[in-house]
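Researcher: Before we compare anything, I want clean individual predictions. No alignment, no superposition, just each chain on its own. First chain goes here; please echo the sequence and then give the structure tokens.
Model: Echoing the first chain and its structure:
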Amino acid sequence: MAKGPTPGHGPLTGVRVVELAGIGPGPFAAMLLADLGADVVRVDRPGGAGLGIDPAHDLTNRNKRSVVLDLKSDEGPARVLDLVERADILVEGYRPGVAERLGVGPDACLARNPQLVYGRMTGWGQDGPLADRAGHDIAYIALTGTLSMIGRPDEPPTVPANLVGDYAGGSLYLVVGVLAALQHARAHGEGQVVDAAIVDGAAHLATMIHGMLAAGSWQDRRGANLLDGGCPFYGTYATSDGGHMAVGPLEGRFYAEFARLLGIADAFPDRWDLARWDELRATVTERFLTRTRAEWTEVFAGTDACVAPVLSLGEAPHHPHLAARSTFVEHGGRTQPAPAPRFSATPVSVRTGPALPGADTEAVAADWDVPGLRPTPRD
């Protein structure tokens, strides 16, 4: 007999996280921990994070609580250390050495709480010639070779938003790292520092590609390979109404279904004849331009041809499959991606909207037993 859900907000219920406010991958990593049930207290700075985003719309601060502390004041670092004493994980995204100068670096925090997992999120890492330099996602994925793989061969590399570096190579590796270190801390009573660098994660993401390169099955140039748009049956095609369809029938039986439905079943008996790939691509392009995106979606619906319409951000939540799975949810009047992944015994959800700076000071002071967070009464 299946058991019912375990009380709580997810598998990390009971884990306490201090997030030193920043931008980009650090807040996203802390959001993921919060989505999974951790009690994340974001330490906001007076005046905000600096990007000019209305805090009420910053979805990466959902499921968190916020206090405001000035780390450049006499009291700010001491209050952070009070929180650290009661925390399991700390997440910060400063340049190397900044947290130390503020008095909340690893040595100070681990002296206060030897079992703390101290997570550091940077682009270049804590050491190396570029460690102290400024940077953003595009530069990190550029140096790792990742960016060189994306785009058409006759055009500059395509910028893949900031998903590959900041969030895949950064946030997700930080989360894996701090959870692994938390397991070690609970088993051995020993905290440690997790150095999560976007360059490391973005390079690691391409492990399979490096293996293919070593084996001679991947060319070190853009748009010339099976999975980078070089293959005519793995890419995107425009439709008659300006939409696009994504095509990916790599396996033989899936390709046979694709070719039949597209109407080119007898045109190219050997799809692996690379000398005819340009001709095959031109034929596929011509066929897709004969109908609208909606019409082609209907043609391929319910098949294993591995074809899907390219939907916009606004369209995606309304797709029947994503709607049925509640891949997107609405909370506080905002449609947003639901927490992922899913758990059978410890379900997760969007519990609260974006934490507003300082709005939770009293509650955190009480729940974490840090009375010093409360403002000192004026005479």
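Researcher: Okay. Second chain, same rules.
Model: Second chain and its structure:
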Amino acid sequence: MKFEESTKYKAFKAFRVDQARQFKDALSRARTVQGKPLALTTIDATLRLVKGFFHWLAGQQGFKKVVTYSEVEYFNNNRNDARAAHAQCTVQYPSTKATHHAFQGMADRTELERRNKAMFAFLVLTGARIGAVSSLRLKHINLVDGFVFQDGRDVRTKAGKTFTTWFFPMHPDYLACFTKWVNFLRDEKMFGPEDALFPRPERRLVNGKFVFDTVSREIYANGSIVNKVFKAAFAQVQMHPYGAHSIRKTLVQEMNDRDLTLAEQKAWSQNLGHENFVTTVSSYLPVSDQQQGALIKRLEVA
């Protein structure tokens, strides 16, 4: 623990307020392996963890007279650094035009290439998180009504949440590609409801060598493949390699660009798995200083 290092491993029962101040000074002087100062986010997170530990310790038998809750507050970060640490960074995301361009450039000759292209299309249609995408099975897909049931019991959704995502009304190429893939799995590969929607490759022995040219029926252990496929699609057309999560921002921007009613916007938000519409607006549709100025200047005098 960094705090113990700063006190030279003194017993917690020897705690003094000065140790909290010294610890904060030590963090401000600390350097990474590259010789750079610790990031403000790292310092803030470290202070919060240590404060949380001492807050717990203050209520334990034998420590109630040693550590008081008021003394624990000395682990608070200073206001300016805390605000800077939690400031939202601008996240790059592709436009709908750039996304479709990357999609069109994806190959679809082999089974794995068709899987990858369908995976990309599915991300645009649903904005699903990479953990969910990598753990979905055919039973979760309803092509007739056009939705995916993200069942938190066996799909790796955020916080185990269960919700339905209806396919977003994006370019028809995406739905055509995804539909073709699902039908291929069901009709040609004879996949059943419990088989993976985007399966791992299957290892086969061909002419004395192992090859990965077909899909298995198994899901991936995590969502790293989804990110890899999404980034590669943009990189191959010489564009910025956007992360898969950025498509959620693209979809929210699409919502903002359309002339939707408030109810339609809320439905769009819920489709992304947001219980609160404010989450969609504040986290995915921030107004920059430049936009703020432009919008205010356009307003007419009442």
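Researcher: What stands out in the second chain?
Model: The longest helix spans residues 40-57. Additionally, The longest strand covers residues 209-215.
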